[in-house]
Every structure is written in C-alpha cells, then in structure tokens.
Amino acid sequence: MKIENPTGTALYSIEKAIKEYRKLAQKNITKVVKDITVDQCLVLIILQQNESISQNELANLVFKDSASITRMIELMVKNDYLTRTIHAEDRRKFNLVITEKGLKTIELIEPVIQFNRETALHGLSIKEITLLDQTLHKIISNCKK
Asked: Which of 1, 52, 59, 123 could bridge 69 with an S-S bond, Cβ 3.0-4.6 Å?
C-alpha cells in the first residue's frame, strides 16, 4: 500500500510541492550553468536588485541562517560569482559585488527561472494562483503569531 500523504495535511503537500519545484529548478539551471545552486541564483538576483543589502537581510530572504549564508557567500566568491570587501564605515560588515561571471549567470538563468515558473503553474488560472498565494500568506501569518 502506497501512502501519498502520510500526515494527511495540506502542509505535507506544500512541503512536497516545494521539494519537487526545487528539484525541477535545479535540474534546469544545471543544464545552463553547471556550478551553481538554486539558492546561489537567488542570492545573485537579490543582490542585483539591492546592492546594499546586509548579509542578515540576505540570509532571511533566502531562508538561511547566518552561518549558512556565510558559507554560501564564501563559495560564491571562490567560484567567482561575487567579490567581497570590508565595508568602509563598519569593519564588521562586507560589501558584496556581483562579478562579470555572476552577471552573465543571471542573464543565462532568467529565462530558465521563467520556464520553471510556467512549468510549475501550468494549468492554473490567475484566480487559482491568487487564491493559493492568499492562502499561503494566511498560513505564514498564522505561524508567526
């Protein structure tokens, strides 16, 4: 007997959907850029949109703790996606700058991200997507109480 949803809750299905989406996203990103993860792509995109973001803010946006984001950034510097320099006014902080390789990577993955989203949301109406988003935000709000 195959158990599809062992907990019998929508939360299990949400977790499974996230894991399946991440597998799809990583598979498709790897076809275009071999040495980068989904989370590292997200870091690049966030930094491109907000160059002055703090490392703590960045960690929160990619759902990582401080130690994990530090390791991720170190690896991205090593792989030439980012440069890291000490902040001029606060030596406890760093400036993160996207390298040419990082910018080229963003260019390459943007259509992949769009394709991944279209694949995941295929067959859903705007109304269904809106309702799903509203429902997930209610769950998030409930969990923060």
From this structure: 59
Q: Which amino acid is at 101?
A: K
pLDDT tens by residue, 31-44: 999 999 999 999 99
> For the CA atoms of 88, 89, 92, 97, what is the dihedral angle to 10 degrees?
-40
Q: How far apart are CA 24 and CA 112, in angstroms?
A: 10
Task: Determine which helix (DSSP H) or strand (DSSP E) holds 69, and give its type and residue range.
Answer: helix 66-78
Is residue 41 a contact partner of residue 113, using CB atoms and an 8 Å limit? yes
Which regions of the chain are under pLDDT 70?
Answer: 1-3, 5-6, 8, 87-88, 90-92
pLDDT of residue 65: 94
Residue with tokens 């969990």: 143
pTM across the whole model: 0.85
Measured CA to CA, the distance from residue 64 to residue 47 in angstroms comes to: 15
Q: Are 94 and 72 in contact (CB under 8 A)?
A: no
Look up residue 100 and give its two tokens.
């040419």
